[in-house]
Amino acid sequence: MFQSRILPIAASVVALGLAAPALADDAASLVTVVTSPDAQTQLMAMVLTAQAVEEGADAHILLCGPGGDIALAEAPESATAPQPPRDMSPQGMLQMLMSRGVTVEVCAIYLPGMGADASVLVDGVGVAQPPEMAGAMLADRTRVWSF
């Protein structure tokens, strides 16, 4: 009877031990795409990306449409207003991620759609080039999160 209870437990422990490294390897690269105009959604995208970076992921953020507004030097209040529970803003978290080496870019059509150039963006935010971005999103071991 003792052996019949131990074998399933041992099998579970071995399976968990093997699964954890596989999950870590799969999360080696992350592309976070933010299109939502909602400040809470934008902030949660930044929070989850920050957590992935803490866990070792190499992250890249692509901001499109209303999501791109958080990268504007003169961003709307929704992008800069502190959100509960930790009084962080989407733009504040974005800048923190950039300080940790995360690449942040707006979609290639974002600025032309506004009739603007890169001078309206926060320092350090670039403009994505479709061939490179598509390559990053298609790369092996890359996860794409869309908000």
Gyration radius from CA atoms, angstroms: 19 Å
Which parts are unreliable, with pLDDT below 50 for 5 consecutive residues or more? Answer: 1-26
DSSP strand content: 15-25%
Helix content: 40-55%
Q: What overall geometry do the principal axes of the alpha carbons give?
A: globular
The count of DSSP E runs of length 2 or more, i.e. the number of strands, is: 5
Mean pLDDT: 86
Largest beta-sheet details: 5 strands, parallel
Q: List the secondary-structure elements in sequence, H or E.
A: HEHEHHEHEHE
Treating each run of at least 4 consecutive H or I residues as one helix, how many helices? 6
CATH fold descriptor: Hypothetical Protein Ychn, Chain: A
Number of domains: 1
**Which structural class fits the helix and strand makeup?**
alpha/beta
CATH architecture: 3-Layer(aba) Sandwich
Distance between the termini: 50 Å
Annotated CATH homologous superfamily: DsrEFH-like
